Amino acid sequence: MKSLFKHLIYIIVLSTAASCTQTPAYRTMEGGVWNTTFHITYRSATPLDDSVRAVMRQVEMSLSPFNDSSLISLINTNRSMKPDSLVSRILLASQDVNRHSGGAFDPTVAPLINLWGFGYRNSGIEPTQEAIDSALMLVGITDCTLSPSGDIIKKSPETEFNFSAITKGYGCDLVGEMLRRNGCEDYMVEIGGEIALSGVNPRGKEWRIMVDAPIDNDTSVVHSRMAVIEPGTGGVATSGNYRNFRRTAEGRVWHTISPATGRPAHTDLLSATVIAPNAMLADAYATACMAMTCDSAVIMLVGVPDVEALLVTVDTIQSPDSLPFVITTTPGFPKISR
Q1: What is the DSSP letter of 257?
Q2: Does 243 score more than 80 pLDDT?
Q3: Is beta strand 336-337 parallel, antiparallel or unpaired with respect to 269-276?
Q4: What angle, rounded to 10 degrees, do the helices at 49-63 and 164-181 form?
Q5: What pTM was estimated for this model as a whole?
Q6: What distance in Å separates the CA atoms of residue 166 and residue 210, rounded to the nearest whole number?
């Protein structure tokens, strides 16, 4: 009997050891969040879908200006000046990108985004120059600070934040951080086109990311492969004006607002794909590029450590066999394939 008991224990120990050494399976989840879609692939012994959704909910309740109950909405309307860790982190990151971009990236353009019909309030009326000048007086992310007691001190009580140009990337990072806390080293988190990557894909190779061609289409979103890259661990984000625009009496206006003029930015760039140590920075720098010329964007990015970009402009001297685009990459951008 004693020998049989020892034998049973030995079998249990062997079974436990075998289960511990099994390779965790890759899991996928997808759906909608923040008025966009998400696709996530991660390798884990247990499903973590509920935890992913909890992180997404946390991001929304902290940073979504479209949710009247979110913390950033309370700050925008001066009902609270106490940021949480998410607001504080994204504020400081935004100020850093603002400095590197010479002011091209500034989430306090929120009132101007609203004026032009791309924000969380839309009057439906084209803004007057007087309204633009008035809103410009409120812009200045570097004029907003965190007090010693932890309160946010805004440039003006009427200053508002719209961190949408950095939040999706930050959300990808936060999901990735949660996956890492749960032992996941291999994952791809994509939310609305912004991506956080770690480790390898289900084939055991580096993640391959398709870069869309900036195809202008008035009626639908068109995905056409322009390039494929293997960026490694970090963040990837693409920003472009070709899909998010409005028609006005003056013609099309695009959603990237220049903090310098208060008007939609018009530059030679069609799109910018940025890779960075995390998706939050990739998201922010991709937006900054779209408020700049291609040459200015290259100069900016060369001065930022570990941030690289693929920039697309129109080919003004197009040959019949070439793409209608010119692709410019910064020196450290990974090899691209077609």
Answers
A1: B
A2: no
A3: unpaired
A4: 150
A5: 0.86
A6: 21
